[in-house]
Amino acid sequence: MALPLSPQVFAITSALIEERTGIRHEAGDRDILAEKLSQRAVERGFDSLLDYYYCLRYDAGAEAELKGLVETLVVQETYFFREREPLEALVDVVLPERLAHAERAGRKARVWSAACATGEEPLTLAMMLDARGLLDRVEIVASDLSARGLERAREGAFGGRSLRAFPEAMRAAYTSPLPGGRVAVRPDLVCRVQWENVNLVDRSAVAKVGSVDAVVLRNVLIYFGDEACRQVGASLAEALRPGGVLLIGASESLLRFGIFDCEERGGAFFYRRPAS
Ligand SMILES: C[S@@+](CC[C@H](N)C(=O)[O-])C[C@H]1O[C@@H](n2cnc3c(N)ncnc32)[C@H](O)[C@@H]1O
Questions:
Q1: Average pLDDT in the 124-141 region?
Q2: pTM here?
Q3: Which of 69, 220, 229, 235 to mutate to test the pocket of ligand 1 (most atoms within 8 A of CB)?
Q4: What is the CATH number of the domain that holds 115?
Q5: Residues with Cβ within 6 A of ligand 1?
Q6: 59 and 143: one domain?
Q7: 207 and 231, same structural domain?
Q8: Atom 2 in ligand 1: which residue has the minimum CA distance?
Q9: pLDDT tens digit string along 50-108?
Q10: Which of 73, 97, 122 is the last residue of a domain?
Q11: How far apart are CA 260 and CA 271, in angstroms?
């Protein structure tokens, strides 16, 4: 059963969560948040959510506790070949020019799936690149806030919900069957991806990823407050090489912040820093 969460404790706790993760809880989410916080608070021996808030804010182990709490707060819904057309536009229309640019500079192109949940999105990219003979020319970085999600991604085994849009014709090339209808993705593809634990609202963590030619950040900003969207947009703009692109989800927009211009390429919308 959930511990009581007063409007005041909801306000300070949700503000703390938003500040540290970007994830916003509206007033109508109070009951859901009470349940998630209670689960974790009770496990840690608290019988009051105000005391648990103090622990998250001030205790010596606050950072580790927040990392644990995050695992109950994040929505990790994802699947292979999700919103496939924009990824194809990235690989077929945008990436060739980025590859040419990178290779003139003597390096590989770098693509970053910046909130990859359990890894289906970067592995889809790896498969698309492999199918076009481009995988050796591109470095794929994949990151998420959730350490548990990344652990599952590295294991490379996936079940039915992840496979619902996986083209039948590609399954044999990229997966092998496991018991219970699950599949293992080809281990060489899983190893090709550089998996990293990155909190996108932590500017220094984003900077550590280094420069990239393209960022894919889909179905994440919908969970963020405005300030976090602006801040993440600004950090990603810094991570992008000149001419690099950001691809966000179909229902998301960053145009209101004036950080990026948006252009249509191959039927998808890509964000670029305005030429200065
Ligand atoms: C719905 S999933 C999106 C997965 C994938 N991009 C897709 O479109 O299928 C949202 C992901 O955002 C991650 N996330 C939430 N806040 C984050 C933050 N501050 N930094 C990095 N990742 C975050 C969650 O852990 C979750 O895995």
A1: 98
A2: 0.97
A3: 220
A4: 3.40.50.150
A5: 21-23, 74-78, 82, 115-117, 121, 144-146, 149, 199-201, 218-220, 223
A6: no
A7: yes
A8: 76
A9: 999 999 999 999 999 999 999 999 999 999 999 999 999 999 999 999 999 999 999 99
A10: 73
A11: 6
CB neighbours of 124 closer than 8 A, spacing ≥ 6? 80, 81, 82, 84, 87
Do 127 and 34 share a structural domain? no
Model confidence at 136, in pLDDT bands (50, 70, 90)? very high
**Ligand 1: centre distance to CA 115 (Å):** 4
Q: What is the mean pLDDT of residues 13-18?
A: 98
Tell me which residue range forms the domain holding 30. 7-73
Please determine, for residue 275, whether its predicted confidence score (pLDDT) is greater than 80: no
Ligand 1 pocket test, pick from 74, 193, 231 with the greatest ligand atom count within 8 Å of Cβ, gives 74
- Protein residue with its CA nearest to atom 5 in ligand 1: 116
Q: Are residues 43 and 155 in the same domain?
A: no
Q: What is the pLDDT of residues 196-225, one digit of tens each?
A: 999 999 999 999 999 999 999 999 999 999
Residue 61 lies in a domain: yes
Residue ending a domain, among 31, 49, 73, is 73
Calculate how far, in angstroms, residue 144's C-alpha sits from the geometric centre of ligand 1.
Answer: 6
Same domain as 45, residue 165: no
